[in-house]
Each structure stands twice: as C-alpha cells, then as structure tokens.
Amino acid sequence: MSRTRRAAAVSFRGRGWARAAVLIPWAIPTVVTSRMFGWIFDGQSGVAHYLLTRLHLTDGYIDFLGDPHTALPTIGLADVWKTTPFMALLVLAALQTVPKELGESAKIDGASPWRAFRSLTLPVIAPALLIAALIRVLDAFRVFDLPYVLTGGGPADSTETLSTFGYKTLFSGLELGYGSMIATAAFLTEVLIAAGFASYLSRRYRALEG
Q: Given a cut of 80, is residue 69 above it in pLDDT?
C-alpha cells in the first residue's frame, strides 16, 4: 500500500470536526451536565423513566436520584459520560504513537490481531494508559460538582464524597478544625495515589529501556 493510501486509511474528511464533537461532553460545564442528568433521570417526568415505561421495562415510579440504591450509579453514569471523551482522546493520541512497522511485522510473522495488540501495541501505549488512569482516579476521588448539584450527598448520605463531606463540615457546620482536617486528608491521599502511579510508571520506563 502506498504512503498516500495509508494516510487516507487513517484520515477522513471532517476528522477535526468529528474530534471536536466527541469532546463536547467534556467541554460542557459540570453544573450544566448535572442539571441535564437531573432532568433525564427525574422519576416522574424524566426521559429515562419515559423510555423504560414505553419499553415495558418498568411499570412503576423509579426515583433514580432519590433511592439510595440507584442514586450513586446514576451519578457514576453522568461522570463517565462527561469524562470518557477526554480519556478517549488520550488513548487515541497514544495509539497514534505506535509505529506502523510493528503491525506490519506482526502480520508477516502470522500473529493474530489480538496477539499483536497484546504483545506489541499494549506495551507501547501502557505508560499513556497509566497516565490516563491516574488522571481519572484523581478526578473521581475529588468529585464534588455532580453529587453536590444532583443529590447534595443524599439520599441518606449514599452519594456523599470526601469533597462534599468536607464542604458541609467546613462551611455549613462551621467546624473549621474538623473540616480542615478532612481537606488535608483528601490532599494527602491524592498525593499518595499520584506517588504510587509515578513509582509504577518509573519502573515501567526502566524496564522498557533495559
């Protein structure tokens, strides 16, 4: 295959617009996302309840954000919808760094697509995947906007996070010492998580270089 045809195989008209459209959920402010999902999963007039009823998957009232069993999964779904495009962009950037010669060599050697991905592509993009995982873990650990706007930490504290708990303690309860301790603990925990990822990444790089 010629170089021109190779380029055409990985490129298409409107590629930049497609990437920009994919990033729209990530670019939307979190408060707007929260209000949108609050409307979608409203138990009485929400789109989700309407679709489930029309598909005969439920015949009763489902309070997605008012039930302790469904509130946290609903917030998780909103968080995944918002952050997945950014993670996908990081993974795409990592995949574009994989030399095409690796795939061609694997085909010549008779390796299956799965074997080529597992043995060649995955080790190359593993550091980028770990960095993406680190960003995502830290972002999920300190999440505040979604649970605060959608449920306020309820019902029955089922969606309470360390950030919302610290905010309520510090600003609503005016327990300055306790609230400051919670904020400090959250910061130190994130530092430990980042240090763990950094240590593992450094070992991976040393192994690849060796």
A: yes
Instruction: Write down the architecture of domain 14-209 according to CATH.
Output: Orthogonal Bundle (1.10)
Residues 117-139 have pLDDT tens digits of: 888 888 888 888 888 888 888 88
Non-local (6+) Cβ contacts of 46 within 8 A are: 39, 40, 64
Q: Which residues contact 75 (CB under 8 A, 6 or more apart)?
A: 146, 147, 150, 151, 159
Query: Over 70: is that where the pLDDT of 11 sits?
Result: no
What is the chain written as a DSSP string? --HHHHHHHH--TTHHHHHHHHTHHHHS-HHHHHHHHHHHT-TTT-HHHHHHHHTTS--S---TTTSHHHHHHHHHHHHHHHHHHHHHHHHHHHHTTS-HHHHHHHHHTT--HHHHIIIIIHHHHHHHHHHHHHHHHHHHHT--HHHHHHTTT-STTTT--HHHHHHIIIIIS--HHHHHHHHHHHHHHHHHHHHHHHHHHHHHHHHHH-
Residue 171 has pLDDT above 50, yes or no: yes
Read off the pLDDT of each residue in 86-98 and give the average, rounded to a whole number: 85
Q: Could you tell me the residue ranges of all domains in the chain?
A: 14-209
Structure tokens at 124: 């190359």
Rounded CA Rg of the chain: 22
Q: Is the pLDDT of residue 10 over 50?
A: no
Predicted model pTM: 0.78
